[in-house]
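Q: Joint fold for the lines below.
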Amino acid sequence: MILVCILGLPLIGAGVIAAGGGRPTLGWAGVGANGAALGLGIWTAVRVVRTGPLTGAQGVLRADALSAFMVVVIGVIALLASWIGIRTVALELANGQSTQRRVTTYGVLVQAFVAAMLLAVLAANVGVLWVAVEATTIVTTFLVGHRRTKGALEASWKYIVICSVGIALAFLGTVFVYLAALHVGGHSADALDWTSLMAHARHLDPSLMRLAFALLVLGYGTKVGLAPMHSWLPDAHSQAPAPISALMSGVLLTVAFYAILRFKAVVDLAVGPGFARGLLVIVALLSLSVAASLLLTQRDYKRMLAYHSIEHMGLIALGAAAGIPLAIAAVLLHILGHGLAKSVLFLTSGEIMAAEGTSQIDGVRALLARRPALGGVFGIGLVALLGLPPFSLFSSELLMARAEFEVGLGWAAVAAIIAMVVIFVAVVGHARHMLLGPPGAAVVEAPPPGWVAAPLVGGLVVCGFIGVFAWPLSGLLEAAAHVVAI
Amino acid sequence: MSGSPFTSTLTLAVGAVLVCAVTVVWLSSVRSVIRVVAFQGVALGLVVLVVGVHLGDPGLIATAAVVLAVKGIAMPFLLERSGGGALTRETRPLVNVPASLVASAVLIVVAFVASRGVAHFVGSTEGGLVPVGVATALLGFFVLVAKRRPIFQMVGLLMIDNGIAMVAFLCTAGVPFLIEMGVSLDVLLGVVVLMVLAQRLRSEFGDLDLDELQELHD
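A: Joint structure:
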């Protein structure tokens, strides 16, 4: 029942927004619904850690510790993004860039997007998981194209075409998993249930599972933004409205990665851990090198953040490749930390873009002196994202590297660290341009209103808090890691 | 292959799907391409129907009806609506027609070589036909990259989807009914989204080739 409520709440928010006739303030209904879903998610997490997995809706939904953790991540980011979304649509409406009808469409689609992600992580069946991930593609295409400029339409076209091909490959992979499951006598109706796959995993045909997993990594990897299937990502993330970029980068990418984690657990049992590890190390190192080389020459700060996502997805893939419980716990902590830092940065970049009128790095100067509040949040967000203490990305990156050394992937960890150093230098260079410098003749501008600043600062505070004190999460992380670890 | 009615009907229907795919590669008129894709949807529905009747599975026969309705009727209708007006021909494909046909032949061979590993998990008749589904998907991918009109990209995606759906039906007699419904609905919505996007592109910027979309790059 509780799982159905978690799914239903964002949709109720969507209903209120749809019925309300295009006032931006109705967005608070969405914020409330997402906040309530987050609350239920935390409650589910506590219960799951204490008493084991929950099921709902006649077994269609299932929450173990991993699902519960992902629900919490989705809830937090959805809360931040829908909150700032009110500001975004109100500004657009005031500037005449939008109409009341588009405000309503936007609000409804955001809530549907959140619900689809929640369904993906709560689905008991990997077929339903596929349907939910595909649904996120469909919904977000309109959100990427929300501004209807030439760039936005181009980005959404590329996004849906590339991701549809990717998701079609993931479907083929799922079909091959189903074929393998039928061969070991899985009952056809529940053969795609993840628990039943895990129960039969040791008997699944290894050659078929290798083929299936390669297709699944390629397919879901497209949605994760792993190289070489990443080309849609910088366009979509830079053209979408800021709250959408925050949701997509902060949590949609990792929801797709969650699908890979689930299948990896099955494949590790079926063919041994070497195969998935090799595949993930390749895509991880490829993603890191693509991100490093393109960040060096970046001229647009939203694209800079987008390439930064490719880097972090590479790090997460490398951590998952190690696969031991320590590594998976670190990967999950990184998913949360990256989600928080990246969504705060995208939301702040939306404010900066609205204030400065450009997304070019060259067009923004002396932000710290002219707009101390915005510049400060942006700067601290970058510090978090670059993996400096006290933020949680520091500890998760350290733990991932330690786990990689433990399983003999030290060479890959070293390669990743080299890429991270290059990225660090590149991003600090860009940030120095934007943040520092003499203010010139310009006066100090007024900071954004308190209700806008509160979630941005709050997100960073939480990211720092979980970096210093692990206790609220450690039980959940440990339980979630054991669900899919080797 | 034996000459049982099941085998021959199935082979015929599967063959029709592939012939449609090659025809799409060959044609450049938007209107006829949409008709061919509609026919491909019908042939796919027939594949599902034949497998369903052979196995005596009512769920699969119901799925056949859905596939026919969605892929044979609804999607071509939507494509026809969005493809009307000025978009009537592919005038400047990246690869010309003779080269495309040679590429098709190569892709079909690749599909047969690549899907050998899967075929022996499946009954002899269906197993022999699995490579045809893979070939259809590969040809769809070729259409997607080689043609520049938005409508051809939609057709390419549809062909990829038809090919993969055919592999699914031949390998496993279809994924469970509920999931099949979800899949069909998602694909249908995907095409509707592409259609709306294509209309927005046209209304904002006129009739354009996709390679005119060059604003975003590094």
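Q: Anything notable?
A: Chain B has a mean pLDDT of 82. Chain B touches chain A through 40 residues (CB under 8 Å).
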